[in-house]
């Protein structure tokens, strides 16, 4: 995170991104909202070790996971910067809910997709969006993949 964005504190909009259609919709909405409010955005992409940690090839698997997460975040940052909004990114190894809650602890708004990459068909909300709603200290906006953004 850059110094300028760190000092933005309560004025920033935090967006959870993971490369899914749900997070792209959340990012699209957040960037538009940031432009309207004249606020910076912080994009947070989390990745977890999961099954890769138990593999005999754990080091290679972890490198691939981190590289994939970095590439996804970089693509989201490049797209968001086209809007003219000030955006920064944070890549976090760990639990998404905890990372998003920490990043948004002094934010104006937290924006997430209703589901992530591991979306369970038929579930009203994914575990990350549900956890953010229950524990965030700021307003939370949850967008579905098909939400209209105007």
Q: Could you explain the architecture of this structure?
A:
By secondary structure, the chain is of the alpha/beta class. It has one domain: 3-Layer(aba) Sandwich (Rossmann fold). 41% of the residues lie in helices and 19% in strands. It has five helices and five strands, in the order H-E-H-E-H-E-H-E-H-E. The chain has helices at 3-6, 21-37, 58-81, 96-103, 127-135; strands spanning 13-16, 41-47, 87-93, 109-113, 139-143. It has a five-stranded parallel β-sheet, with helices on both faces. Strand 2 (41-47), helix 3 (58-81) and strand 3 form a beta-alpha-beta unit. Helix 4 (96-103) runs parallel beside helix 5. The longest helix has 24 residues, at 58-81. Residues 1-8 and 119-123 have low confidence and may be disordered.
- Approximately what portion of the residues adopt beta-strand conformation? 15-25%
Please describe the biggest sheet, giving its number of strands, its sense, and whether it closes into a barrel: 5 strands, parallel
Q: Mean of the pLDDT scores?
A: 84
What's the β-strand tally? 5
The tally of structural domains comes to: 1
Which CATH architecture is right?
3-Layer(aba) Sandwich
> What is the CA-CA span between the terminal residues?
29 Å
Question: Which structural class matches the secondary elements?
Answer: alpha/beta
Radius of gyration: 15 Å
Lateral strand order in the biggest sheet: 3-2-1-4-5
**H/E topology pattern:** HEHEHEHEHE
CATH class: Alpha Beta
CATH T-level topology: Rossmann fold
Shape: globular
